[in-house]
Amino acid sequence: MIRPCTDSDVPNISAIVNDAAQAYKGVIPPDRWHEPYMPLEELKEEIAAGVKFWGYEDDGWLIGIMGMQRVKDVTLIRHAYVRTGMRNRGIGGKLLAHLLEQLDGRILVGTWKAANWAVKFYQKHGFQLVSEEEKDRLLKTYWNIPERQIETSVVLVHKGIPS
Questions:
Q1: Is the whole model's pTM more than 0.85, yes or no?
Q2: Most exposed among 21, 106, 127, 147, judged by the fewest C-beta atoms under 10 Å?
Q3: What string of H, E and C letters represents the secondary structure of 6-67?
Q4: CATH superfamily of the domain spanning 2-158
């Protein structure tokens, strides 16, 4: 079942993010990796900044999450994670499809350039990479991330939406 997450889900969201983000360890630049990947306080700041999380729940257990955040004139897909032991079962695709059904207008997602699996996932679900120049512009316009993260990231836009 896909449902909106509540304040009581925050500890589970944190656990899912930090479990699933282990896939980035040794893949993304070492200067961008830290433990925990997303401290609880940072997660709470993201929620306070408008990230709304949806969860995939199975038998009362939250196993995947995905956020969306309206920023200016676009919607960002944020923090998409599935518990390590539950990957490759279509959960991320179901969460993304659910969010896309609710959204209109320009939809963007940013991820690590080296996370080939994430880039392929979004491409499989109707997103296309933007140029390096456009990526830099979009990340500086819609995200609040350090320059080093901009250098090591990509942005994808949902197809059918003019760039």
A1: yes
A2: 147
A3: CHHHHHHHHHHHHHHHHHHCCCCCHHHCCCCCCCHHHHHHHHHCCCEEEEEEECCEEEEEEE
A4: Gcn5-related N-acetyltransferase (GNAT) (3.40.630.30)
